[in-house]
Every structure is written in structure tokens, then in C-alpha cells.
Amino acid sequence: MITLVHFHLHNHIMVGNKKTKDVQFYIEVIDVVQTIGGGKRSAYDPDEIEEEQRERDRKNKINTDFQNFVNRVNDVWGQPQFKALDLEFDQPLRELGFHGVPHKVSAFIVPTSSCLVELIETPCVVITLSEIEIVNLERVGLGQKNFDMTVVFKDFKRDVLRIDSIPSTSLDGIKEWLNTTDLKYYESRLNLNWRPILKTITDDPEKFIEDGGWEFLNMEGSDDEDDDSESLVESEDDEEEDSEEDSEEEEGKTWEELEREASYADREKGNDSDSEEERKRRKIKALGKSREPARAPTRPPARPPARPPSRPPARPLARPPDRRNVSGSLTKRPKLR
């Protein structure tokens, strides 16, 4: 965590061997250092409580020193010889900030009342709203997790500033902020190649204004609507032409043509009167005949030679009943009287 004051100058100055318009002074309030075993301390450790109190006192002292410096500078800027320069200190509005990649590293970008800044990472980003021509929000669409923001400056010879990989959850907040600043912004589904666009504008600015200016960024939606309307008109005209041709043909038909049409309609009605099962049966039979391959004539199988009729098995001869009694002697016949 650091406390800083940043100066964005009107003119360039030399800092070391570099020419710059941004000068920054900062102090690290809390050192990002974790001591070994520091996480094992108790919450009521007196040494840890004393260390936290020292950090808070140091942070408050640094913030107070910076605030005193800002107040003294504001007093100087309030003098008559500096009022015409319209100099003032501005504070970032962190509740309107969003994450993005202005250069190579993701950073937290915050707007102010007159600028859009990112002052922690190097190189820093400081854009005054007065030098912005338009803002184009690119890769905006359903299902997109991120989108990009392109800042086009009023100086068309200056390269645009791109802020990539902004979360889609920040889209509504950015739109609200742009509306409060009265900056014109557009939305597109694709990334644009801005160098040839800016070159075309600088080569013939009058033609650019005659062609509608920045309204070409809205061509994506208007073209689709125009194409849909034109295709709809063409389809209606085609239907009217077809109906006129049909009516002309019906007026110019002869008696013989009408008879042929009537007979053809009768045949269609006769086919329709058949049941669906019969039509399906005829269709299956026709398909079977067309798909069945031609076969060579086959002879019926030869019959086996005839056998002589087989005799039934011989039956055993009937024997007279045995008239012996149980003891084995013959029974006596009764005498006839």
C-alpha cells in the first residue's frame, strides 16, 4: 500500500534522460513483507498488537503530511497569477473503478472528475476527458466474459488507447460514468483496426463529415435492419408478380385445356378416395418389385423314389379263455337235465 501525489503537466519536462509530462511522488505506507512464523502468533499477542498500532500511526502521519502539502499548494494556486491556469488537485473515485489491461499487466483503473487514471503500475495512465473524442466499447455481446475499451483522441495523429480484458460485470458502470461525462460512446461486437480509420479521416476530413462522421460505427445494426426490410419488400413484389401471371394464364385457357385439368383433378380425387392402407400397400409392393433382383428359373426339388407300402405288424392270435380254477384243475360243467 502506498500514498502518492501525481502531477500531470501541461508541457513536457526532462526527468533524468526522459521527456515526460507526468511526475509522481509516493511513499510505501505498509511494507508487503511476511516474516517467518508471523502467521502463528496469537490474536492477543502484545507484540503483534503493538506492531499494528505502529503501522496505523505511520499511515496516518504520512496521509497527514501529504494532505498538508496539497493544502499549501492549493493556497499558492489560488493567487491571481495562477487562477487563469485552472489548476486543481483531483481525487480518484474508487467506487467507479474497474479492472483492465492498459499495457501488459492487469491494473485497477479509476476515473476522476476530469481524468481516467491508473497510477500504481508503470507506465502510468493519465487521460484527461477534454482530449477524448469518442470511446468505443468492443467485443460486447451475449456470452462474453470480457470486453475491450478503445479511447480515440481528438488529435487523430495520436494512437488510440486500448484497455483490454475488462470484465463484463463492469459494463453498466462504465456506461453510466460515460453518460455523466457527456462523452459519446459506441458499441461493437468486433475489434476494429484504428490506424487505417484514422488515416482516412486525416486524409479527407470533409468527406468523413459528409459521410456521417462516427455513425459508421452504428452501421452494424442499421445494415441488418435495411437488409431485412429490402428482402421483405422483394418477397412481397415477387408474390404479386406470381399472382398476376397465374391470373393471366387462367384467363387465356382454352376449352380443351380446361377439360384436361378437370380430368386430371378427377384422377387425383380418385387416388385420394383410396384408403391410406391401400396406397401404402401398393407403394411397398412397387418398391419391392423395383428392388428385387432378377433370379434364374429354378427347378422343383426331385422327389425320392417310391417305397413299397409297409405291412402292419402281425397281431397275436386270440386264445380261448382259460377255464381252470385257482387250484389248477378244470372246472366241471353243469349237467343238463
From TrEMBL:
<keyword id="KW-0158">Chromosome</keyword>
<dbReference type="GO" id="GO:0031491">
    <property type="term" value="F:nucleosome binding"/>
</dbReference>
<dbReference type="GO" id="GO:0006368">
    <property type="term" value="P:transcription elongation by RNA polymerase II"/>
</dbReference>
<dbReference type="InterPro" id="IPR013719">
    <property type="entry name" value="RTT106/SPT16-like_middle_dom"/>
</dbReference>
<feature type="compositionally biased region" description="Pro residues">
    <location>
        <begin position="298"/>
        <end position="319"/>
    </location>
</feature>
<protein>
    <recommendedName>
        <fullName>FACT complex subunit</fullName>
    </recommendedName>
</protein>
<keyword id="KW-0805">Transcription regulation</keyword>
<keyword id="KW-0539">Nucleus</keyword>
<feature type="domain" description="Histone chaperone RTT106/FACT complex subunit SPT16-like middle">
    <location>
        <begin position="98"/>
        <end position="188"/>
    </location>
</feature>
<keyword id="KW-0804">Transcription</keyword>
<keyword id="KW-0175">Coiled coil</keyword>
<dbReference type="InterPro" id="IPR011993">
    <property type="entry name" value="PH-like_dom_sf"/>
</dbReference>
<comment type="subunit">
    <text>Component of the FACT complex.</text>
</comment>
<dbReference type="GO" id="GO:0035101">
    <property type="term" value="C:FACT complex"/>
</dbReference>
<keyword id="KW-0235">DNA replication</keyword>
<dbReference type="InterPro" id="IPR056595">
    <property type="entry name" value="Fact-SPT16_PH"/>
</dbReference>
<dbReference type="Pfam" id="PF21091">
    <property type="entry name" value="SPT16_C"/>
</dbReference>
<dbReference type="InterPro" id="IPR048969">
    <property type="entry name" value="FACT_SPT16_C"/>
</dbReference>
<dbReference type="GO" id="GO:0006260">
    <property type="term" value="P:DNA replication"/>
</dbReference>
<keyword id="KW-0234">DNA repair</keyword>
<feature type="compositionally biased region" description="Basic and acidic residues">
    <location>
        <begin position="252"/>
        <end position="272"/>
    </location>
</feature>
<dbReference type="Pfam" id="PF24824">
    <property type="entry name" value="PH_SPT16"/>
</dbReference>
<comment type="function">
    <text>Component of the FACT complex, a general chromatin factor that acts to reorganize nucleosomes. The FACT complex is involved in multiple processes that require DNA as a template such as mRNA elongation, DNA replication and DNA repair. During transcription elongation the FACT complex acts as a histone chaperone that both destabilizes and restores nucleosomal structure.</text>
</comment>
<dbReference type="InterPro" id="IPR040258">
    <property type="entry name" value="Spt16"/>
</dbReference>
<feature type="compositionally biased region" description="Acidic residues">
    <location>
        <begin position="221"/>
        <end position="251"/>
    </location>
</feature>
<dbReference type="Pfam" id="PF08512">
    <property type="entry name" value="Rttp106-like_middle"/>
</dbReference>
<comment type="similarity">
    <text>Belongs to the peptidase M24 family. SPT16 subfamily.</text>
</comment>
<dbReference type="GO" id="GO:0006281">
    <property type="term" value="P:DNA repair"/>
</dbReference>
<feature type="region of interest" description="Disordered">
    <location>
        <begin position="217"/>
        <end position="337"/>
    </location>
</feature>
<keyword id="KW-0227">DNA damage</keyword>
